[in-house]
Structure formats: structure tokens, C-alpha cells
Amino acid sequence: MKKLHFYHVSSVDELAQPQETNQITLDSPALTFLTDFSVTEPLMIDSSASAIEAKELMQKTHVRLQMVVDENNHFVGIISADDLIDRKLVMKVSEGNLRNEIPITEMMRKKESLMALDIEELSRANIRDVINALRDSGQQHALVISRDNHKIRGIFSASDISRKLHLPIDIQRRSTFFDVFMAINSKHVSNLAVAS
Fold first, then answer.
1. Residue 169: how many CB atoms within 10 A of its CB?
2. Which of 4, 63, 116, 170 is buried most, with the most CB atoms less than 10 Å from its CB?
3. Per-residue pLDDT tens for 30-43?
4. Nearest one of 173, 148, 169, 151 to 160, comparing CA atoms
């Protein structure tokens, strides 16, 4: 075993920084910003976990999205912090579920409902194109697939892009039919409560 030593830093004045940081712009290649799963291991959670376990894990690790995998490590969907907000958990409880026993599979977005960008197309795109795609879709994250080998290759995150560019990137989430239905339904429920 090699013994490591600590050294004083009082004479050190500068921080090492990546050389390419100064050269990153909206016209930089899109793949520069990709969290590439062939290089960085994806953040995964087992589909047998509960929604509360997923929420607590995200809070502890400061991540907003995880890949959900089954017992064979096959990709089955994604779960984000937005999927686990209290309002959505309360709805599941109102359907008769115990809060601590709500399965992650009830809250996640299944892979059949997901869309992704193609890594081949992205190899010819810049990050401005990705930002526009995120804005058009109203999504904070975009999965990237390799259609050649049928793998999830990586992910783009609006917050990561914003941090690397040192620019605010405002992605407005699009209202879905579900959001409209829930707003109408909750208003109807509160009207019933007031009437009784």
C-alpha cells in the first residue's frame, strides 16, 4: 500500500480549468454537451423500487432524472423529479395506494411513451439545435439513441447545457391533456367540497 501525503496549498493561486470551456458557444458541436453513457455510467434505479425511494435517492444525489431498469437491467422508462412531486403522489394516495408503497412503475414514463434524438443526426448538429429541440418539446431532458445498435446512448440536460454555456436556458413545460384534466378535476373536487 502506498502512503499518500498532504501538501500545503498556501502558495497555490490558480484553479485548473478545462481548456475548451472558453471556446464553448451556441455553435459548438451538440455532442460536446452529451452525457454519453459509453463514457459515464447512467444513473439507474430498479423498477421494483417505490416512488418514495426514488424521490429520496434523487434528493440525496442531487439528480433530477434516472433511468428505470428491470431485474435484467433492461431499460423500461425514466423517472424525473417532476414525476414525483407531492401533488402527483397525493393523487395516487387518493386512488387507494399507501404513500410509501406507490411503485415507481406507477409514476415513471414508460419507454413506449418516450421520444429521443438520434446520435447520428446529432453528430452534424450544434448545441443551439438541441436547445431549440428541447424548447419545442417543452422537455428539460432529451434521451439520445443509437438506432444502429438499439441502445440509449446518452442524455442532454437543459441545466447541464445552461451551466456549461453560462447562459440561462428557459424551457417551458408544455401543458398536456393530463395537466388540463387534472386542473379541471381538482377544481371540480374543490367545488364539491365547498358545496357539501
1. 16
2. 116
3. 999 999 999 999 99
4. 169
Phi then psi for residue 101, to 5 deg, are -115, 10
When mean pLDDT is compared across 7-16, 34-43, 104-113, 171-180, the lowest value belongs to 171-180
Report yes or no on 143 lying in a domain.
yes
Pair 79, 54: CB distance under 8 Å: yes
Structural domain span for residue 139? 27-174
- Burial level of 12, CB count in 10 A (0-12/13-18/19+)? exposed
Q: How far is CA 179 from CA 65, 167, 171, 174, 183, in A?
A: 20, 29, 17, 9, 6
| 116-125 mean pLDDT | 96
- CATH value at residue 124: 3.10.580.10
User: 188 burial class (0-12, 13-18, 19+ CB within 10 angstroms)?
Assistant: exposed
Domain count, the chain: 1
Q: Between 33 and 180, whose confidence is greater?
A: 33
Q: What is the pLDDT of residue 174?
A: 52
pLDDT at 74 over 50: yes
- Domain-embedded: residue 85: yes
pLDDT, average across residues 94-115: 94
Q: Starting at the edge strand that comes first in sequence, how are the strands of the sheet with 109-110 ordered? A: 44-46, 65-69, 75-80, 109-110
